[in-house]
Amino acid sequence: MKFTKLSLLGAASAVALTFAAGTSSAVEPIKMRWASDHSGPPHPAAIAEVFFAEQVEKKIPGSKVQIYWAKSLYNVPKGTQALTKGNLEMMTGQFGKTSSVEPLANTIVGAGKLTSPGAINGLDGTKTYAQLKKVFNDKHGITLFGSGHLSMYMGAGAVKSRLLVPSDFAGKKIRSMGPAENALLGALGANATTMSFGDVPPALQTGVIDGLLTSLGGFNATKEQAPYFTVAGINGIVGDYYWIGASNKWWSKLSKAQQNALSDIIVNDFIPFQKAINFCNDKRLVDKYKVTDKSKAGIYVMSPAEAGVLQKAEGGATNEWIKTKVDATGDKMVDQFTAEAKALVAANPMGSSALEKTDCTAFAADFAKYAKGSALYKKKSRK
């Protein structure tokens, strides 16, 4: 399955212009490793990474792509450093989790910024993303090929009752995805607790935490322990994104033909597939578990008015926290991206993006392929 719509590729297509597209049986085989800290299939990002591996091995015969999920090889900070040193070939990173290595990565993070699918798809075309891409290349020796989507419906799950207004969060112990989310939880009066996702289910079960911030995929994995999941529209509670990067030290050792072939697969096959399957995974989970009765277990999607109450309580706390962690350049980037995000949302209202018109039936076979009982179900690697 190949997606070539420029509306899905966005700014990533610029990479394809830099590296001429095309694959050939004459291209020398490529042996590489790909690391991610998210879980394996059926996580949609993992399914996309397997799709990438299959495309490389099909289009460049003799190639082999090993994938390591769930921090089984590196977490995001260590993986970023490994890319810099040439000890890892490629990685799915996450901007918020990269901030301990590169603080400027936090400048595009935050709830209530990119609040439509079209706006999220426009991330790669912003000046702020271009600045980050240059920083990754010049400072860390990493080429960013584009951004990838986390769940658009990041939200708050709870054990006993729904988290809807600031008073619901007050005093609760809530699992955070990272430091930037701690600022939001603090503004809502919650006690933020950062922990890896693997520790979340038992923590919910034993009462160590009262709830969690996570994706729809995270809700799907913890719905028995935290059945009340609330989303404040698109990116209303958490806003973070994947980045797809390669080690410059490794990349420079590839032949031009190998670079061209890989660039074509990454930009024209993998990134559009990743964004589309993530959107469809969100859609199928919302369709399956959505409720309109707030007292019932399941996924409740807030109205704009309800979401606005949380946004008002946040009051810019996330941006202010980020600014304490960056230099003067980063300070300007935070304000710049906030303005760019607002413009993207205005230019791409809900329902206007080609991504929202994706035929999700095209991915039914992919989701079925990695269902419970399949060879890669919840595995930590593909070797």
Structure in words:
This protein is α/β, with parallel strands linked by helices and 383 residues long. Helices cover 44% and strands 15% of the residues. It is built from 17 helices and twelve strands. Strands 4-10-3-1-2-12 form a six-stranded mixed beta sheet. The longest helix has 34 residues. The two termini are 22 Å apart. The N terminus is likely disordered.
What key attributes describe this structure?
D-Maltodextrin-Binding Protein, domain 2, six-stranded mixed beta sheet, 44% helix, 383 residues, 2 domains, alpha/beta
Q: What number is the mean pLDDT?
A: 92
Q: Total number of β-strand segments? A: 12
CATH T-level fold name of the largest domain:
D-Maltodextrin-Binding Protein, domain 2
For the record, give the distance between the C-alpha atoms at the N and C termini, rounded to a whole number. Answer: 22 Å
Characterize the overall form. globular
| Percent strand | 5-15%
**Largest sheet strand order:** 4-10-3-1-2-12
Gyration radius (Cα, Å) is: 20 Å
- Given helix and strand content, the structural type is alpha/beta
**CATH hierarchy class name of the largest domain:** Alpha Beta
Number of domains: 2
Concise structural overview:
The protein is an alpha/beta fold and 383 residues long.
How is the secondary structure organized here?
Layout: H1 6-9, H2 13-18, E1 31-36, H3 44-59, E2 64-68, H4 76-85, E3 90-94, H5 95-98, H6 117-121, H7 127-140, E4 142-149, E5 155-158, H8 166-169, E6 173-176, H9 179-187, E7 191-194, H10 200-206, E8 211-214, H11 216-222, E9 228-231, E10 241-247, H12 248-251, H13 256-289, E11 298-301, H14 304-314, H15 317-323, H16 328-347, H17 364-369, E12 381-382
Helix pairs in contact: 3-13, 9-15
